[in-house]
User: Which sequence fits this backbone?
């Protein structure tokens, strides 16, 4: 009895501390990586380490035990993470650094000496400002993907998952990913934000993405009002439209709070998630599906008169 009680106390402590520990640990390791001679290499190593830690805790203290069961999508999820989002770069962590690579190439070419960016601010303040601006772009891109039939055909791939766990963090169609990067990073380019701001925002987005999709029993409490947490994102994957078409924030809950899409009721999020449309089996078929008539009909279940793509499909991100 004492051992069980002790185990319960340890689990409770971990459930309340793991999110800030993993997120903070990832950012601390990122600071060391960015100060090294090989920042992307060490960032990717950090990303893999955090992903592995999350995978271990998913087995030790799952939020939903049923989500530990295989959904026959592991290979496809790996392919999307390794070959799609990361543009065929080796290693799961490279997938998360696509926006870092883009910023490294594009930002120096577009930056001018007359940019309005507050370069004299402390870097931390610049990162916070950049994150708020980028989040608005991410929010618009994400919400548009739920409200536009053209965009939902790509975003539905992510919502087709029937369980949430660390490995489907990168399950996005490349068109969906590029659209989000364009809307979130372009304003920062135009404002003249420096490269470190892009790198820190990319790192925060990478670690937040791992945690929002994790299947760990976490109690994030007040953090739910500030950050995009697993609690909020599980509601976003609900099949019920009134629940699923909410919580669009990638990193922050700010724009959901301001624009009326924040949702966090005092009950347990649904276990049964997914979409009513059909996503093709296999990585290559999933990439091609949104570009074919038959594939689009399968995604929308041939229901053209709905008020929202999610109405036709019955799901969310």
Assistant:
């Amino acid at each position: 009895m004492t051992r069980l009680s002790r185990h319960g106390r340890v689990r409770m402590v971990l459930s309340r501390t793991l999110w800030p520990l993993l997120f903070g640990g990832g950012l601390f390791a990122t600071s060391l990586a960015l100060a090294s001679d090989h920042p992307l290499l060490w960032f990717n190593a950090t990303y893999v380490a955090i992903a592995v830690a999350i995978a271990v805790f998913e087995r030790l203290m799952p939020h939903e035990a049923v989500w530990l069961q295989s959904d026959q999508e592991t290979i496809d999820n790996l392919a999307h993470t390794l070959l799609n989002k990361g543009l065929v770069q080796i290693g799961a962590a490279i997938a998360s650094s696509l926006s870092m690579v883009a910023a490294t190439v594009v930002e120096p070419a577009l930056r001018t000496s007359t940019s309005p960016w507050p370069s004299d601010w402390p870097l931390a303040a610049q990162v916070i400002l950049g994150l708020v601006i980028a989040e608005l772009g991410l929010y618009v891109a994400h919400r548009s993907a739920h409200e536009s039939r053209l965009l939902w055909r790509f975003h539905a791939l992510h919502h087709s998952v029937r369980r949430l766990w660390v490995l489907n963090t990168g399950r996005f169609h490349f068109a969906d990913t590029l659209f989000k990067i364009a809307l979130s990073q372009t304003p920062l380019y135009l404002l003249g934000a420096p490269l470190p701001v892009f790198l820190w925002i990319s790192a925060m987005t990478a670690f937040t993405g791992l945690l929002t999709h994790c299947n760990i029993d976490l109690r994030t409490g007040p953090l739910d009002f500030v950050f995009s947490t697993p609690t909020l994102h599980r509601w976003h994957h609900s099949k019920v439209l009134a629940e699923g078409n909410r919580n669009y924030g990638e990193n922050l809950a700010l724009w959901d709070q301001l624009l009326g899409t924040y949702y966090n009721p005092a009950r347990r999020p649904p276990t049964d998630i997914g979409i009513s449309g059909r996503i093709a089996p296999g990585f290559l078929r999933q990439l091609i599906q949104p570009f074919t008539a038959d594939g689009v009909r399968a995604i929308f279940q041939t229901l053209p008169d709905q008020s929202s793509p999610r109405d036709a499909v019955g799901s969310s991100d």
The first helix runs from residue 2 to 34. Residues 146 and 310 are 6 Å apart (CA to CA).
